[in-house]
Fold these 4 entries.
Entry 1:
Amino acid sequence: MRFDNVLAVDPIDGEFVGSVETEENVITGIRRIPGKREFERILMPGFVDLHTHGSVGVDTLSMNGEALKKWENFLYAQGVTYFLPTTMSSTPSVILSAARVVRDYIKNKTLTSVGGIHYEGPYLSLKRKGAQNPELIRSIDLKEIEETLIESVKLITMAPELEGFSQAQELVQKRGITLSLGHTDATYEDMERAYNHGCHRITHFPNGMNTLHHRELGCVGAVLSLPFSVEMIMDGIHSLPGFVKLIFGIKGPKKIMIVTDTIDATAMPDGEYELGGQKIILKNGRPTLEDGTIAAAVLVFSGAVRNFREFAGCSLKELAMVSSLNSLNSIGIKDRGRISEGYRADLVLLDENLGVRETILNGKTVFQS
Amino acid sequence: MRFDNVLAVDPIDGEFVGSVETEENVITGIRRIPGKREFERILMPGFVDLHTHGSVGVDTLSMNGEALKKWENFLYAQGVTYFLPTTMSSTPSVILSAARVVRDYIKNKTLTSVGGIHYEGPYLSLKRKGAQNPELIRSIDLKEIEETLIESVKLITMAPELEGFSQAQELVQKRGITLSLGHTDATYEDMERAYNHGCHRITHFPNGMNTLHHRELGCVGAVLSLPFSVEMIMDGIHSLPGFVKLIFGIKGPKKIMIVTDTIDATAMPDGEYELGGQKIILKNGRPTLEDGTIAAAVLVFSGAVRNFREFAGCSLKELAMVSSLNSLNSIGIKDRGRISEGYRADLVLLDENLGVRETILNGKTVFQS
């Protein structure tokens, strides 16, 4: 494939106008045209969403392969070339069954954007449960964890203050699975200990955690003080635009990862839905539990990318970091997320308003508008 | 005067080993010795404390000139060459009377480190009163404010969410007096409005204000998002060392001003004291109200300087910013706070542990150990 007249945006080398060529599934040619400023399309690394519970009526905990395909196709139209279906807290057997659906799906496809599964829970703080079902939040049980860690598991969110966390961290990391801290009422010291033992990632910061205080730094203080990378839900509701801008100023473009945290109600009409065994009311595009607690989100990834650009006032180069590269790096994937020779051709072609026009996965067009 | 073999620390040009000469009250000669690393003493700009209610048994609201002299001498031994006695909330007549004591004191002295008075209140938030006496916190009354603004008033702390604040801000600033925001329950918008109208200063951040939340940025969010300069009480109690380090990382060395917020009990034995009409219990060096609320501080300025260096892990150049220049600049004083030719010779000579060995005010030694 060949993309002429594009503004190519690499998160490391920056932006340039020119051409990009791919052969098979790899980027093989980069041609910069110095001084040229006009272009037809923007070419960015394909978007990555590591925290999404569902969309278009599909939910991670209840989907089969066919439903997952429907979801995947929907995300192609959003420019997403890598994502992790994400579970809510549930019983080991239910989350294991979701992990098996994902495992079998990946096995049977030669081309897919499904990278694996993200377990958000069930080993979380009851006090910081957010929209997680309190009846399904569990104490750490090492044997149980071990049994649920099948090959499709890429990411697990846990609360570091729980009893047995250190052993759980060691177990998870030894298996090559990335640990993320979230839904937590930890102290600064709990967070720091997890950081020092190799966990450098935060789930939907700063939602579901205790806030900063000058006499107890807590979770937010630890996240701001230590070089954690943070997921942020970019709907302007979970975090105000001004908060996003503030965190962008503090953490910088290399430590933020856009996620959607969407649920099955995304891209669906207002009405009642289900999330981890709890009723969700979608009204005016805003999903809540019956008691009014914000429950996940319904924005689409390309909208999240546009929001971030507006909230943070960032460059396209920085946008390529927060929408793709940082997330990939957080789970150890190094072969994509760049527009540079030798990298995998996972790309998204956008118009000047960052509307998705074409999505390329592994060198093949999977969406075109 | 001539200081040989010193490590001179200028907040702009940085550190150098060499000699510094003064004539009359001005720095006239700077001689750097390139490559030389050994020195006998550290020479820094004299320390500045813009927020201190008292020390050695002296309290701003009740002192006479003789008591103020005792306080001033105590601060010379701390390396302080400029300070503002600071009132607590009180009636207009009581604070005005304190301002007159300060005015007459300055008039009658040819050499003094007393720069004027800082009114902390009485136009503050009842909800964020801290150790201010709630019975003496008042609504904004422009006529009353006007009557209390005599020539010795240099700084006023007010809460920006109060009715009439905008007019009060205009009134204060037109008189050339600096406004500082503190003891406030303001919204982000209140803070931003005050900033945009020329108030760029925060009183003892983040004590006495609402904290950061991702869906209401509030005072702390505004302070971190906008380029406010912040007083910080450097006792390790009002803000944890880790919080100081975090804020140093976020705001940088140009936006932090060390203050002590000391009360009359400073450098006094444990016992009972008074602050703005309320009983203070000093126990193990920690002052509280009878209900346990932290009430101001009892650390000494040179200790605060050492604390900051340790908490923030900063350079001496940065230490010279936060202990002197930033505070001076915040109230519009430009002729001192530097070790550079032509600047006023307000200096402090320190040993390698930052112990005060000599204090020079306007070219004259006022303390020597």
Entry 2:
Amino acid sequence: MQFSALQLATMLDGKLEGNPDVKVSNIAKIEEAGEGMLSFIANPKYEEFIYTTNASILIVNESLVTEKPVKSTLIRVKDAYSAFALLLEKYKQIMSNKTGIQQPSHIPASVKTGQNVFIGAFAYLGENVVIGNNVKIYPGVYLGDNVIVQDDTTIFPGVKVYENCVLGSRVILHAGCVIGGDGFGFAPQPDGTYKKVPQIGNVIIHDDVEIGANTTIDRATMGSTIIRQGVKLDNLIQIAHNVDVDTNTVIAAQTGISGSTKIGKNCVIGGQVGLVGHIQLADGTKINAQSGLSKSIAEPNSALMGSPAFDYKSSLKSQAIFRNLPDLEKRVKELEDMVKQLLSVREGV
Amino acid sequence: MQFSALQLATMLDGKLEGNPDVKVSNIAKIEEAGEGMLSFIANPKYEEFIYTTNASILIVNESLVTEKPVKSTLIRVKDAYSAFALLLEKYKQIMSNKTGIQQPSHIPASVKTGQNVFIGAFAYLGENVVIGNNVKIYPGVYLGDNVIVQDDTTIFPGVKVYENCVLGSRVILHAGCVIGGDGFGFAPQPDGTYKKVPQIGNVIIHDDVEIGANTTIDRATMGSTIIRQGVKLDNLIQIAHNVDVDTNTVIAAQTGISGSTKIGKNCVIGGQVGLVGHIQLADGTKINAQSGLSKSIAEPNSALMGSPAFDYKSSLKSQAIFRNLPDLEKRVKELEDMVKQLLSVREGV
Amino acid sequence: MQFSALQLATMLDGKLEGNPDVKVSNIAKIEEAGEGMLSFIANPKYEEFIYTTNASILIVNESLVTEKPVKSTLIRVKDAYSAFALLLEKYKQIMSNKTGIQQPSHIPASVKTGQNVFIGAFAYLGENVVIGNNVKIYPGVYLGDNVIVQDDTTIFPGVKVYENCVLGSRVILHAGCVIGGDGFGFAPQPDGTYKKVPQIGNVIIHDDVEIGANTTIDRATMGSTIIRQGVKLDNLIQIAHNVDVDTNTVIAAQTGISGSTKIGKNCVIGGQVGLVGHIQLADGTKINAQSGLSKSIAEPNSALMGSPAFDYKSSLKSQAIFRNLPDLEKRVKELEDMVKQLLSVREGV
């Protein structure tokens, strides 16, 4: 797809400087952009690139002052970063603007689908599945019986959603994630074996949630595992049965949350963090990457680090001394020698 | 599906109190149950809910004494928890009682299938695959050539089993897990590149094993990676080539076991644990979440913690002092000052 | 498939001792090999097995001296290990020698395919996908629009590659890995919600790369996430947007690399390691399993350990003292008592 400078300037309500007919078919960072590409300069520290870039079109701030001739066609707008982000979004929308139902796909008569839906080949919808408007279901997706998918949600290839789970509106599920697998519940028996505890609950994912590739969210034993509005989960995260993650919490890759733990609103949890089961985190809790948490956090906006985790600043101090433990041990050894000497002197006296 | 109180009471051989015709179509925890739902009370601390719940039917212990009128229809049984668990299991069985072979699926003429089998659409069976009785293969499953699946095993959607692997009876593989991918074996070459070591072994999974979503178990270089009877693996676990996990061991999510390590019977391994290769764990070893183990454990029933891990109780003590390292350092500083003073006094003398 | 001793000896240019007609259909380690199996002895410490093994054929070094009668047919070659590895490789090639296009698969008219290609059933190729010669695409693979796959690359079942990504020659992608999912980029808004930053870049995987099962590699925000020639990634690894991993670097399972981090050539990174974003690792950096790195490493061939990681040897020392922290604390306590005593004595004087 190609756009001319004139088209883009019109779209962005910007002022055009240079050749209005030059065309771009790709987007790149200023330092990497070549001919036929569109880029932007918002940050003054990148302004030097304006004289050397091969980008055919540049979006810049109205206020930008050029001191030498510029090869690229410029489009001047109030806020170059926002204008560029807007274009990116439109570009992404156009690129992923798929509709229609491809064959073969498995769609029983009991399924209800909304308008303007995309269902890719090899997608499998169970009995009584309900699909809202503008939903995109990529190839190879599996939706179990009675799954509900609300409007404007996108499910990327190979996602598996077990029966009875509910996905809200504008949810994005990335490839390979698994929603609603059985929680890890087993009752130990006297002979050392384990008996499976049936997991008959479901997973409910509220609006505006994004879930990364190959992340797994287990169904509740009874009731629901809940991911609330605006939560963003990265790749390869494990969410166990009956967990509840409250609105606008962000969790980085490879973190694991054990069963029945409740995470507050607006928390920020780093990568590879582990949380034990049955604890609560207050709103705004921040947890450093690779930390391990085994206790509830009652105070909102706490920052924690370490495995086991404690207060971030104290943890930093302990870590600094840990690095110098051999030195501390040496100081103790020297003290021991000196004190021994003092004692012997005293005894000598 | 609906059940009347009379049907359930008959099924459980229980005594009915209240309306025998009231019907339920769902199951919930006592504190969340509404009209049309079935719940139970086994633990005395939940007995207070009996007067406030909207559950239409409650399973309770024979011995339960009510002091006020109860809205719900009661079914009295010897052991309310066991009776409820039995119902859950039956419910789960009914919900997942799929049979038949859906089209399109890929089933070569060389495949042998038992009786009462379910094979979902888009499932792919390689040459010479053998499927036992009552096996359920969900949509989008891939079984490579010569894979054997024994009776009553369930393979959830999108599971991939590479060629020549063997699955026992009553095995459950959750969505997206990968059985039999190549072990991570590369021979370093003089020029800094790596040469792949062909991985020609397989994976053998014994009876009654359950494996979580997106867990990966690599095939052996030669011989077999073995998961023995009754082992339960959670989601996103990595089991490397030639590992052997002995009976009734339980491993929590995101743990990784490196190549050729042997884990004993009835071990309990927490989440996000890492084990290096070529070590052995004695039966009954317990490892705390996020620990890292680099040495064999010879003593049965040991408990370990930390990265690197050591004895659980000692590890707790070291962690407690770690939290107070700044304090310990301060005490050493004070000692240094005092000793310096003592020395100067002595020299002054 | 069966091979006679004569066939194998001819293939390996080896000298045959024993029955030239004996046949093998399987391969095993010397200590596990039975009748009808082929094995080898390269390491002198396994030579004792030569008199007890039931292997039908053994590949041994020319120089091997036998002192008692041997049941197995021997094939003597210059280097038994290399000869055996060669056979393994040929065996693996024969076992996986699939070609042809199975139906149903989704291959739009705009797709270009090379010669001698295998495309399994339920594979989905997007518009304008380009497939080189001898490429194997297993069942259930998804390749988004414009994906390029170069010669001799193998994509195992259920791999998902998002649009515009590029795979080099002789690449191996194991089952369930996800290439090109959206990077985890969200702009925090004043109301506490997050706005998705469109991820319009791609992933480029160079020649001779192998990527493990269920590993995830995110597409760049702009530009490319790059995995360079000869890199080997194990299972369940997370590579974030705009990461660059240089040639011949090896990364073990469950490690996570955060956004825009650059890893040098010939690095060796253990399992469950975490790297923060926007750092650089010099060539030859070695990082111990479960370490966490938050700073760039400028010195080539550094070895690091710990979370947070520092110099390997110092880290070992700190860990050793950590194990004995209760002892160190006790020594400090004793010093305090002694010094208190000394002070009181002095005051007493």
Entry 3:
Amino acid sequence: MSIFIARILIVAASVTHASASCAYGTHLSPRAEGAPIEVKTFGYTGAIGPLNWAALDGGSANVLCATGKNQSPINMVDGVFKTLTAADVKLQINDMPEGTEFENLGTTVEVVSKGGTLEVGGKTYDFKQFHFHLPSEHLDNGTSLAMEMHMVFQTPEKDIAVIGVFVDLDNGVAASAPRADSHLSAIVQLPPSSLATAAGTSSALLETVFSQVAKIASPGSVVETKPLVMSELVNILLAGSFQSYSGSLTTPPCSEGVMWLVSTQKLKIQTATFKKVRSVIGFNARYLQNTPGFNNLLAVGAQSAVAAKAAAAVPAAPAVKI
Amino acid sequence: MSIFIARILIVAASVTHASASCAYGTHLSPRAEGAPIEVKTFGYTGAIGPLNWAALDGGSANVLCATGKNQSPINMVDGVFKTLTAADVKLQINDMPEGTEFENLGTTVEVVSKGGTLEVGGKTYDFKQFHFHLPSEHLDNGTSLAMEMHMVFQTPEKDIAVIGVFVDLDNGVAASAPRADSHLSAIVQLPPSSLATAAGTSSALLETVFSQVAKIASPGSVVETKPLVMSELVNILLAGSFQSYSGSLTTPPCSEGVMWLVSTQKLKIQTATFKKVRSVIGFNARYLQNTPGFNNLLAVGAQSAVAAKAAAAVPAAPAVKI
């Protein structure tokens, strides 16, 4: 059973108490170490799902989810983004030799940062956390990937930048051949250089993080990761470029003005690892939004429904047979 | 590049000509063999995507996409379906020793049936075709699967039944160990008995069909499959049970009264095969619909937006910072 089913049970009696006022609720600010984990009160199915996020707080905090014209995720096709090269970006992320907290927020699994900065467009953002969506939220030129990692950065003035990284599946047969009998610990110990150069190789960082995902199967649970070598990730990202556009948070309150940097580099994971993560996350991708600058698809859809209903008039639309 | 990007280019100038009046356009009726393939005029992104399907024909043919209260796909959780056992269902599908047509409709890849019947609930449906969605459209108790196969049946009176089968990824390392160096042809030749019993084994049927998916990368293209042993599939399905509910087509015109039978048996494919299919399909899953009997989520979402906008009043909702 996925965490989201469990969440629906938890949330069923308290959905009207959902708060969207806290920055923590946006996946932006990691909680203080040791503080209780606040399980989210939005979801991905039915009445607490993405099409109804605007209603969840009973006020207007989430209104942009239903009205914003620069919402995320989107289909990453030519024309909607501009390309930033590694030279346009200064990225530094602290290694975490002592590990860090890996927690289940009910809506995603998230790794708390131990510091780092992103300098882009004249601003310096602090690295807060990274979390995962399954399947990918953005489409890579029309294609859905297995997962997507979101690395969240914020300035002291609360401006937000997110690096999106597609997570693809290792090819299995081909890629696993040289290490068919190796254990996860051996993979984790692969030198960084082999990761950055071997296209078919699973990400050591992701395999290390996800090796403990079964320990946070329940919303609100947390585990300490093994050491995380973040410089490996930085090297991989800076070997590619970034597809940049101005979008939104993909979770309530769907705040806009978020600087998106979708990496052209993909991280790979083993299929077996993917399935372990899937057994915890289940499904947590918001539906695709309209091209930036165009009307929110909920408004477009509502208008279509009104027009189609009017056209249907009498007799009523055929219900059963076509 | 996925077929959907190509489709957007094709459709861009002709979206107002979209027709939803033909049964063929619903994925129900296979075309006559040799007849030209009609590339679909709906899509999965932006203004031709699922939130705006009701508007695509300029009339009311697709109105149920935006107003129907028994729409598909849904989250398959206890309470929304009733279980039918193999004893409740009589399923017979003709083998296709001479192969059959495998075609790219722009919105999916589809295999044309050479006959078969499904007897359930006192009706006899004829087997028309099967096609694929990526990722899965239904959720399996909260979990998104790699793909979903839809086997479409229809009575002479045009009543529709669809068997949905989740397609999961073969575990790669574990499952591939005994056949690390085998070629696809060897896998296809596995005897049916090993398929029905070996949990980690790829589906011979799917590997056979998909071995040619690269040949139909363009919308409107078609290829003849190798021989298809459909009895293997029937045996697998009848070894499990069916989660049944009354829903809709997951494509325009979103007609309701469709009898869904979601199999508890999953078919597996190799990760490498999945990636080949993905490079053609890209993404073609409609967003999750509301629990059967509850309001259409587009109506719910529109109402939420109106309420949230009213609550926002003046001053305007925060746009950039949170």
Entry 4:
Amino acid sequence: MSVTDELLVNAERYAASFDQGHLPLPPAKGVAVLACMDARLNVYGLLGLREGDAHVIRNAGGVVTADERRSLAISQRLLGTREIILIHHTDCGMLTFTDDAFKEGIRAETGIKPDWSAEAFADLEEDVVQSVARIKADPFIPHRDAVRGFIYEVETGRLREVKA
Amino acid sequence: MSVTDELLVNAERYAASFDQGHLPLPPAKGVAVLACMDARLNVYGLLGLREGDAHVIRNAGGVVTADERRSLAISQRLLGTREIILIHHTDCGMLTFTDDAFKEGIRAETGIKPDWSAEAFADLEEDVVQSVARIKADPFIPHRDAVRGFIYEVETGRLREVKA
């Protein structure tokens, strides 16, 4: 039995106890969360979110590339969110390598160099500041006055704000 | 009090009851989930995930662009995941507009046309098939034999598989 099959059993249990009725498409709390994909960062649990509350956007590092700017533009323009919470975390995998080395390793193995930046970073706080700045500089995201950046501490479960 | 401030109170409660000890960086279940950012799709709840179990990658639509390929490459190459679960869902916002109209609206308002595709789609099942195909065609993602696509039904809480 694959891990996927195992998780599908959980999904059947979720459906069996499903009693939410009809929830509307726009997030009830009008907020979008952009966070790292890290397995230890449970965005719903941490922020006390429930089904229907918030958009959750995640990727390796919680970085801001064209695709996150796309998701945030859609979130605000079509679905009415107004606040953005950005979350990086301690002990992040993105701190353990460099773009050059990662891409060179892939080139050596596959013969092709990736057409993307790996978005590795060396300083956690600085990358939160950078990511918030990328959002605030984006002309396609209409609401940029409530964008705040945080670091989640995987060791303590604490969320602390990073001030620019 | 902003919504962000309200969620920070929840985060303090989470930290106060935090008792996970040290969880390792690589996901315990060796799986990466790629899903839509939709507020009604609670990936942890649906799949029964706990802190430390799985990478969770999310964006508007649960689509596969360069940034998702980057996250999946990092997930597998640096952090050892081997299976991929892709989840779209019914009543998705991406079914309600077209790329051309969305980008033209932004151009009319800001004077600048976005440098990204909005990735809207007209057929839900077909986009799951497309997204799985994009992953399977990616030369930088090493493990592509366990990639499965699903549609989450926001009306029933049920997860159903889409076969290519």
